Amino acid sequence: MRIITLNEETKQDILKTLLKRTPSSYPKQEEQVKTILDRVREEGDKALFSYTKNFDGAEITADNIRVTGQEIADAYRQIEEENPNLLGVMKRALFNIRDFHKKQLQKSWFEDRPDGSILGQRVTALERVGVYVPGGKAVYPSSVLMNIVPAKVAGVKEIVMTTPPDASGQICATTLVAADLAGADVIYKVGGAQAIGALAFGTESVPKVDKIVGPGNIYVALAKKAVFGHVSIDSVAGPSEILVLADDSADARYVAADLLSQAEHDEMASAILVTTSARLAEDVSCEIDGFLSQLSRREIMEKSLDNYGYILVASSMEDAYDAVNDIASEHLEIVTANPWESMTKIRHAGAIFLGSYSSEPLGDYFAGPNHVLPTNGTARFFSPLGVDAFLKKTSVISYSREALQEAHRDIIAFAESEGLTAHANSIRVRFDDES
Q: Which among 331, 360, 371, 408 is annotated as catalytic?
């Protein structure tokens, strides 16, 4: 793994390289996605079934697009036969995820003032949410839990899940079981940009939703970007990324293993170590070489590290902190002598893991905080997926005549200063008897 001296020039070069992974860098795919979305919007199910046949090889119709209770029951039996421990693991993870997200719930509030005015905020859940679950190269039941549970905790009335079928029209058993455990109300066998179009616009079989969440490939990401405004979305996610901030107290073997935990996602994933220790940099590079010879997804990891893997050696912790904040990584591990103190220097990160025994996969699978996180530097202004993403807030205003009377001249003056005479008149007519 390449080792680079950290300075302003090398940092800027890396930031430019990382930005090339954003969904905005795919104009050809953007055109293809637009064609798919337009056709789904115009033709509904006809386009949906045609694309599913073309891309997934499955014969899906209005009669079999919806997953049945029998299919879910069969999925439970399959897991119990093939991996009897997995169901218990998923249930324990589900408990931790639900417990964490319950603490995020917000309540409506109202303030009754002495002058007779009442101000407040009403918090209500979205009515219908679409959860996209990818298929293809890998299956991620953990993402199923992470996307559905906060919506369920928020009180969303209907959770609609879509996921691509295999050529026989079947859905992976672990995906179905995770969805059932988490509380999906209905599951449809459709994936790709066409699924996003169906959720955004509605078809004869798939209902239109209010918000779409969930990860996917570049076509799914671009489709979510394109339908934003017709519906809400969680984010336009980029490839996975990890940044480890470490000093000479860190264990090189642990750090190397953690960097590879993200590099194995795909060739576009980013893995970066920022350290003040030249010795640790060399040791981590050697440990990575050793792990690569043992792990199954070697080719993917090697391409990821060749393209977006860096070990940056900083001259001071202050320079290291600046680099960490500028990169604003999705996952940040802090492995320093005092990680809690180091954390106080960090302003931008999707999720922070403190200490040698808080490795990134702990957050991916089990701890409870959501693993749907901002990528591509958007941790500077975005937050992890949570209950708040499935809630909306409505302002409540109630004034008595006495309360409005106290303020009415100020409101009229303000409105007239903007040339909005009808605004001013709306207030003035209520006090005509005083003129």
A: 331
